[in-house]
Amino acid sequence: MDASMESFRPPRLFSPEERYALTDQIRRSSRAVCAIPAEAWRKRRRRKHFFSKLTDATTYRQLDERHDAILAQFVHVIQHAARWAIRAP
Q1: What does pLDDT average to in each consecutive run of 10 residues of the chain (89 residues)?
Q2: Is residue 89 part of a domain?
Q3: How many domains are there within the chain?
Q4: Is the Cβ–Cβ distance between 19 and 10 less than 8 Å?
Q5: Distance between alpha carbon 2 and the CA centroid of its chain, in Å?
């Protein structure tokens, strides 16, 4: 819940053009982190719906792991920026 609430705060590093759309997306995603497991729990009496919601959470976990791998690549580039920067003539 703390991570969800932290994600809910609007990032100040976004450009003004991106701020509203990206902030809205982050807020909706942060709500889903708590909502999906809660909805699965509420639907546990209906086996099909329960498994469907748990599958949503599993799909999220798989996507999150893929995005973590991509983020790691960005971090590597940032940490070794001199290797990637084009030298000015």
Answers
A1: 60 71 75 79 83 75 83 91 83
A2: no
A3: 1
A4: yes
A5: 14
- Residue pair 55/36 in contact (Cβ under 8 Å)? The answer is no
85 is a domain residue: no
By 3-state DSSP, what share of the chain in percent is helix, strand and coil, each rounded to 5? 80, 0, 20
Q: Show the domain range for 20.
A: 2-64
Could you tell me if 8 and 27 are in contact, meaning their C-beta atoms sit under 8 angstroms apart? yes
User: Comparing C-alpha atoms, which of 31, 30, 26 is closest to residue 12?
Assistant: 26
DSSP state of 52: H
Residue 83 in any domain: the answer is no
Three-state SS string across 7-41, please? Answer: HHCCCCCCCHHHHHHHHHHHHHHHHHHHHHHHHHH
- The model carries a pTM of 0.42
